[in-house]
Amino acid sequence: MPSQSVLDERIREALKQIHSDMLERGDLLSRERLQACHALFRDRFGPERLARLDGEQLLDTMHAHGNQDSLVYWLEFKDDDEFPAVFGSIAGGSALKFGIYRRRESGIWMSGSPLDQRELSVEEAIAIARRHRDQLIAGARLLEALPDHGIGGDYLRLQAQMDEQAPDVARMAWGHKYFSLLYPDKLDNFHAEEYQRFHLIKLMQMPPAESGRYVAAGRYVAIAAELEIPLNHLTIVLNRNHGRPGRVWRIGTRLGETDSIWPQMRDGEYVAVGWPRLGDLSWVKHDQGSKDKLRERLQQGSDHKYNPGVATRKAGELRNFVAAIEEGDLVVAADGERILGVGRVTGEYRYSPEEQPEAPHHRPVEWLSLGEWKLPEREGLRTTVSRLGKETNLVAIERQIHDQKDTDNTRIEPPPDRTRFRLRGIPGRIQSILGRKGQVILHGPPGTGKTWHARNTARNLAAIAAFGKPFNALDASQQSTVEGDQETAGLLRVCTFHPSYGYEDFMEGYRPREGSGGQLVFERRDGIFKTLCKEAIDAPNQKFYLLIDEINRGDISRIFGELLTLLEKDKRGQYVYLPLSGERFTVPDNLFVIGTMNTADRSIALLDTALRRRFGFIELMPDTDLLDKVVVGGSIPLGPWLSALNERVLEHIGRDARNLRIGHAYLYHEGQPITDFGQFRRVLMDDILPLLQEYCYEDYGALARILGHGLVDPERQRIHEELFQPERRDDLIQALLALQPQVATSRQATSVPEEGEELEDDAVGDESDG
To answer: Cβ–Cβ contacts within 10 Å for residue 46, how many?
Structure first.
């Protein structure tokens, strides 16, 4: 451990926890396994090995992409039990990034740049391979001489020496990866300088003033030493925690000199820009054509008549706002030098003139920090949308976010009457797809919370649109407006498709009823969807939602009929004439459809292509992290146990096993994980075992391979139901843990006291008190 701490204490503790969790889940290789992989790589491609090669053997060993025993293959593609892909990726781009490659079609060696390639003779290709080999050997000597736990000056000298002695390979990602595999305790495996500097900034560390792939490595060596983890683990943890390098954008909060839209941006959880007369900019792409078109519109006087230079600059800002800013980027809301908020972008561009007429171009954000402060350096003050690049400012922004997490005193809660909420997680994805396409289907194995997410999201969206607050914050009368009651239908309607469900139930059809004199007559009735469309047309300021449960159990093409055409977002508002009634019919913009689909019954691959194109899809899979801290019976950690069960399902059921796994919702009751062993036993006996029996089609051999012989007798084709008697609890626990003995060694299981241990401590305390 270094004598002086490098990391902020908050960051250090967070990284330790992430590392511990990843080790527990098996997401990281052990030290011994890492050492074995590094030794294997050195044995195959180390300097000593390369020095013994020459001619075409050297050329093929180093640069033959089609040869799975070549250096370039191992560096870019190797990923198996022998050598897993956990050493930093250099994937992407063309083979020219290695400086030389052999064209697959002709077998001719090529070099140069993508726009200026040239053919090489074998002799020329060998000469390049020799130069690469000699530079790899020279770089390895430099790293061998580098002190262990070197300081910044050591790495600065290393950078200069690498540039001098190994310029062709040291400056390339593949060369850096080669050296990091040989010296994993001296070099990080971020093989792009962008990643190195990005992660230091996220750690609130100021990157080195100098540039290069080697100057920052000493920082990571010190951080890994402080955390007492391998460098390989550190880079994987940072990638998992921080993600890919993102960008930071400054967004101005004033329209002209006086009008501030910051309160609306803050409360509505978005950033916005003006130019309302440009209309919807969803067509804008991050290309020159879009910029040229925007410049022409600005010069034509959509809002102001800009001169050519200003119009070009503003067109670039608008293009960046719509198409360059990505989900996950940070935005800084600023009024001149004053920073008012820092947020993370959570979705795509949207055009919202009804919400903010003077600034209708929006990007949704999650505010991470609210409170007034200034950047250390002036940057981007004369622009509405600009990318921040000064690293002192980027570090200050990260520090502000971390400080906000601790204090949260400056956070301003949104007013109760605001009209738009941004939902998070799965509800947020549903909201985003509905805004983009108008309809979404949640699909996945049984028990993954599809109907729960669909219903709760629809209720919240309807409540927010109607009353400006989530469903649970409404009073009884308002909730009745959303869900309806015995007398009045609500903004949310629910139906369930089944094999006999038809067009007449959904759209319109003739239904029998008893007429006068007891005669049976048929009358035409509107179905649930047609009725809802009519109500939505009559109330354009409301939002209506239809939840279709088990949407794949019906004959979708027959049920929807001509509706398939009208569902598309750009077809909303267009009319068709219904074949039965002859009425003019349209689907309005304020009607949204949410479907659920159990993929144990039918994969989305089997859905009609036309239907798939009109819906967005969200896959929900078993999420054992939700059960992470739950242990039942003092011995069975639900998360690891369910993971082990689903691993057995994947292994033994066959090609459809991915969609037949057991969902976490089976182990939930009234929104909370099951903690009572008796309840767990009943769920297992009444829900999970019958489902697995169905999956195995009465094949008790397969069932035994999934559940173990302690629970299943394949010879007698029976389940040991006697284990579910209360007095056989210990035997049942033993049979369940036999499914995967390592479950008992998981962090969740080993962190729970043995039964009786707490009682003994309490008894001692009571006795002392007496």
So the answer is: 18
In the prediction, which pLDDT does 556 show? 81
Quick check: helix, strand or coil at residue 49? helix
What single letter denotes the amino acid at residue 401? Answer: I
What residues does 118 pair with on adjacent strands? 111
Two structure tokens written together for 600: 């144990």
| pLDDT for 526 beyond 70 | yes
503: closest CA among 528, 538, 471, 467? 528
Identify whether the C-beta of residue 172 lies closer than 8 Å to the C-beta of residue 179: no
Q: Can you give the length of the chain in residues?
A: 770
Distance CA 302, CA 100 (A): 51
What's the rounded Cα separation, in Å, for the pair 53 and 58? Answer: 5
- Distance, in Å, from the CA atom of 200 to the CA atom of 190, rounded to the nearest integer, reads 11
759 has pLDDT over 60: no
Structure tokens at 685: 């006996």
At position 433, the amino acid (one-letter code) is I
When pLDDT is averaged across residues 447-465 and rounded to a whole number, the result is 91
- What phi and psi values does residue 130 have, to the nearest 5 degrees? -65, -45
Of 421 and 608, the one with more pLDDT: 608
Say how far apart CA 62 and CA 69 lie, in whole Å.
9
Percentage, residues of the chain above pLDDT 70: 90
Q: What is the pLDDT of residues 328-379, one digit of tens each?
A: 899 999 999 999 999 999 888 988 887 778 899 999 999 999 989 999 999 8
Q: What are phi and psi of 464, to 5 degrees?
A: -65, -45
What are the backbone dihedrals phi and psi of residue 704, each rounded to the nearest 5 degrees, phi first?
Answer: -65, -35
Q: What Cα–Cα distance (Å) separates residue 607 from each residue in 229, 441, 443, 619? A: 48, 11, 12, 15
Distance CA 200, CA 198 (A): 6
Q: Could you tell me the two tokens for 605?
A: 């691959």
Q: Which ranges constitute the DSSP H helices of 476-603? A: 476-483, 503-506, 528-538, 556-560, 563-567
| Amino acid letter, 536 | A
Nearest to 316 by CA among 325, 329, 304, 305: 325
440: tokens are 């979404």
Residue 749 has pLDDT above 60, yes or no: no
Residue 767 is predicted with a pLDDT of: 33
Tokens at 507, concatenated = 């759209």
pLDDT band, very low/low/confident/very high, at 86 (cuts 50, 70, 90): very high
Instruction: Average the pLDDT over 171-193 and give the result.
Output: 95
State the pLDDT confidence band at 163, using cuts at 50, 70 and 90.
very high
Distance CA 161, CA 339 (A): 42
pLDDT band at residue 67 using 50, 70 and 90 as cut-offs: confident
- Report whether 594 contacts 456 (CB < 8 A): no
SS3 370: strand
3-state secondary structure 171-224: CCHHHHHHHHHHCCCCCCCCCCHHHHHHHHHHCCCCCCCCCCCCCCHHHHHHHH
What contacts 24+ positions apart, CB below 8 Å, involve 16-24? 16/227, 18/237, 18/240, 18/241, 19/227, 19/229, 19/233, 19/237, 20/747, 22/233, 22/236, 22/237, 22/240, 24/746, 24/747
Cα separation, 146 vs 157, in Å, equals 9
What is the rounded distance in angstroms from the CA atom of residue 635 to the CA atom of residue 651? Answer: 25
CB atoms within 10 A of CB 533: 22
Report the distance separating Cα 276 and Cα 356, nearest Å: 9
Residues 6+ positions from 754 with CB-CB distance below 8 Å: 634
Supply 491's token pair: 């903004």
Residue 761 has pLDDT above 50, yes or no: no
**Rounded Cα gap, residues 195 and 336, in angstroms:** 30
Distance of CA 385 to the CA centre of its chain: 26
Helix, strand or coil, per DSSP, at residue 324:
helix
Query: Which residues make beta-bridge pairs with 475?
Result: none
